[in-house]
Design brief:
It contains twelve helices and eleven strands. It is α/β, with parallel strands linked by helices.
Length: 332
Amino acid sequence: MAKKKVVALLSGGLDSQLAVRMMQERGFEVSAVAIRTPFCDFDCGRGCGFEIRERAEELGVDLKTVYLGDEYIEMLKAPKHGIGAGMNPCVDCRAMMFEAAKERMEEVGAEFIISGEVLGQRPMSQHRDAMRIIEKDSGLRGKIVRPLSGALLDPTDAERSGLIRREDLGMVRGRSRKPQLRMAREYGIANPPNAGGGCLLTDKAFGRRAKDLFAHTETPTINDIELLKVGRHFRLGDGARMIVGRDKAENEAIQALALPGDIVMEDAENVGPVTLVRGPDAAAHTAFCAAVTLRYSDSEAGREGSVAMSGAAGGTLRAVPAEPDECSRAML
């Protein structure tokens, strides 16, 4: 008989790998779906799951990647179930991910979806009520199996139909990783990855910048989101913001993200940052932005210098480096 199929939400972390192994051990053929968003991208190279393709190969599963871009940003404007300590809409986010997995489940004719979620591991999305909400919102009531904690949760359709047995499901709960590390040894998973999420929205500092962007921009673009990831950020009234590079890599990124309507500044005489000013009244703030640019360059404090402008405004401005407290008042 052909193996029954299941679809796994694969993050590349240990828990999702264990969930796959548990289902494979019980004779299921597993297909994997990996979800990318503007805030959590395993291709970013920052260690938040970018080895996911290697993990899929080691597990022997086919992998489909799904990118949630504009629709994710639209959701983030008003998440139905609120946000966490940063700007993380974990419940709405998980529902969107399971919706993408549902499409894959229907494509391959799978019986249900699995994930590595552990009861009580994350405060916002991994408690019983949140899990039920996620199943309802994604249209997957009874179709999500969480193998690591399944014996502690409500029976699923897979249990009721006899596809899986409750005694084959785990009873892992809470934040301790000891049970998972023991299981990793049993399944021969070498060098299990450390715990931790890769979503930028859980970071409080990044969350402040994101909240400011959404408060002042009706519909942020992917370009706006990418800018949030680099530089020092300053709010210049309701109509403009400024991003100042902190090193060569950030300067290059800011240059690459500059749009025709932006103003780009650099110290004309010393090594320093690339500054980008964006917004409908950006030109009204060029004097202050020039002073901030000199503040973070090698320009001598208190000595007037030159700042070159390009993009929506050209020419040279003379300015004195801004004082630290002037910068801190506008910094996000």
